[in-house]
Write a structure and sequence with these properties.
Blueprint (H helix, E strand, L loop, with lengths): L1 E7 L10 H7 L4 E6 L5 H14 L6 E6 L10 H23 L5 E6 L9 H11 L4 E6 L4 H9 L10 E5 H6 L3 H4 L13 E5 L14 E7 L7 E6 H19 L4 E7 L4
Parallel strand pairs: 1-4, 1-5, 2-3, 2-4, 6-7
Antiparallel strand pairs: 7-10, 8-9, 8-10
Helix pairs in contact: 3-4
Length: 267
Amino acid sequence: MKKILIIGIGAGNPEHITMQAVNALNQVDVFFIMDKGAAKGKLVDLRKEICARYITGHNYRFAEAASPERGRGSPHYELNVETLNKEKQQIFERLIADEMADGECGGFLVWGDPTLYDSTIRIIDAIARSGRQPLEFDVIPGISSMQALAASHKVPLNRIGRPIEITTGRKLAEGLPDDFLADNSSGSSPQDIDSVVVMLDAENAYKKLVDRDLDIYWGAYVGTPDEILIAGKLSEVADQIERVRDEARAAHGWIMDTYLLRKGDAT
């Protein structure tokens, strides 16, 4: 039997690693790394730095493979992701078969938290259920980008007694919940959503909401030495965020950002 550990490594700061993750790292014989090209080399370097920093007295190795890319420009987002995950599953299954001996432990180091906007759990579960590779797996949580974002801005994610919504830029472009967009002048219910965390916004969907009284807490490369933070009234900083975001993408070749939108007139 082979064992797989899916380990959350936080949003970019090596010190985001939990003690549970450190203990997990020290069990792994082979770490599987998906290479996403030279532009994202820092993502690979961070994973290797984490291993070098926290693994003690234990021999380990890396097995790398080129990561497939999701098809873009198609309106069929879910189908594109499903196709991507099937391609990843084939690669993961091959790596597990070729790079692990029976009784060994393999590890996948997942950016942020493995349970939030990541498909590694789904893919490993599909491999386990197929029966082609006898294996068991565990999941070790990590600090997510939205937690790191709120901490960097020194704000809580939610207001007292109020729920939050976590969504994507693509869904934000399609519209937000009616209770979030409603006028608060007559008061609001404790059940009303007044805080929304947005991830994976490649098209600056927040710009569609600049006529609303909203505050935004935006961050890119959160937790890394390249961290960029901007906060303020959405109507006042939207253009600045777009400009800074474009400049950062051009400079680094990639960008990872997220933001919190909050009603500006709530207490």
